[in-house]
């Protein structure tokens, strides 16, 4: 959500971001821990740092017209009880799945103000007090254009994401073999997923047809996307959104994906990619992606998924929340 903050500040709004001390923000930064909680090996109880942060938000709540909380999985859901009951209106954008464990919490606080990141996500728990659906947006100029990307001339497919069973990298490998196109895989392997990597990915790594590049920084990641013939999105679970899909399209690279979750809201079948339910159809789509227009992929992001569009929608929701508050 850094792009949202940047755009709000550029339009004259005062924004305070409660985040780790190493965060790069344009607005005012308020931190209760010097570095990212995931990057501090000496932090035994990161939940305590999150609770302290929520306490500080509560302490300063009267300074703000609206508090915008971003809900992620597990302890990221703590913002629901942690910010309940404030006189300042609180808006919760939900970035995670609704599952068996967290649904009870969301239903307990169903009268809070929520924003879904896709219509699919909203449909999976429709009883919440939604203020709207706001798709994520991107700053298009940050992404290289496929037409300008350097390449060795050999077409290839790319899989970008966490290397874990539910993300379906094993399915991407199967699609690559069926299509006859090489596959480049990039993403983080957490310790708990090491066995999956060893069993489902490592045996296929030959440095030629299937290659693992590790976890890439933003520049290397976007260059890889821009050079690919297509990006494979093979998640085995219905994703509530899909930032990799948007980033690929922003680079002008079509997306070949299962038609599940929010993906049909992001990919226009036959124009910016192919949505197919079976592995043989996905393999054919990966080959046919070479004929799709990169400019159409990039234009879809400019028209439907820009940061400016996202910001306008959030400003509307902010005004609605502030207007209906007791203040």
TrEMBL record:
Protein's UniProt keywords contain Transferase: yes
Glycosyl transferase family domain residues: 151-284
InterPro entries reported in the protein's UniProt record: Glyco_trans_1, Glyco_trans_4-like_N, Glycosyltransferase_grp1
Pfam family, one: Glycos_transf_1
Keyword annotations: Glycosyltransferase, Transferase
Keyword Glycosyltransferase appears in the UniProt entry: yes
SUPFAM superfamilies: UDP-Glycosyltransferase/glycogen phosphorylase
Domain Glycosyltransferase subfamily 4-like N-terminal: 2-142
Name used for this protein in its record: Glycosyltransferase family 4 protein
Organism this protein belongs to: Streptacidiphilus cavernicola
């Amino acid at each position: 959500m850094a792009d949202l903050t940047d755009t709000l500040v550029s339009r004259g709004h005062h924004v305070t971001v409660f985040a780790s001390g190493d965060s790069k923000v344009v607005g005012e930064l308020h931190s209760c821990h010097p570095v990212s909680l995931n990057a501090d090996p000496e932090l035994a109880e990161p939940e305590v740092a999150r609770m302290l942060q929520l306490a500080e938000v509560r302490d300063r709540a009267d300074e703000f017209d609206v508090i915008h909380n971003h809900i992620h999985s597990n302890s990221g859901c703590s913002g629901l009880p942690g910010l309940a009951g404030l006189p300042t209106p609180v808006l919760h954008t939900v970035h995670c799945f609704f599952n068996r464990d967290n649904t009870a919490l969301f239903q307990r606080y169903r009268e809070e103000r929520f924003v879904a990141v896709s219509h699919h996500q909203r449909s999976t728990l429709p009883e919440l007090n939604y203020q709207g659906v706001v798709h994520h947006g991107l700053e298009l100029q940050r992404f290289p254009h496929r037409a300008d990307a350097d390449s060795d001339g050999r077409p290839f497919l790319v899989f970008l994401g966490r290397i874990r069973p539910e993300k379906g990298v094993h399915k991407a490998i199967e699609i690559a073999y069926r299509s006859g196109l090489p596959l480049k895989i990039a993403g983080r392997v957490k310790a708990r997923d090491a066995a999956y990597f060893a069993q489902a990915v490592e045996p296929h790594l030959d440095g030629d047809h299937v290659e693992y590049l590790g976890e890439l920084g933003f520049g290397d990641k976007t260059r890889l996307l821009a050079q690919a013939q297509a990006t494979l999105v093979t998640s085995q679970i219905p994703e509530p959104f899909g930032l990799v899909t948007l980033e690929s399209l922003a680079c002008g690279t079509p997306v070949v994906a299962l038609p599940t979750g929010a993906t049909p809201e992001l990919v226009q079948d036959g124009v910016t990619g192919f949505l197919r339910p079976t592995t043989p159809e996905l393999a054919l789509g990966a080959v046919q992606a070479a004929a799709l227009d990169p400019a159409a992929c990039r234009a879809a992001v400019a028209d439907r998924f820009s940061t400016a569009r996202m910001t306008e929608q959030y400003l509307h929701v902010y005004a609605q929340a502030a207007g209906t508050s007791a203040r």
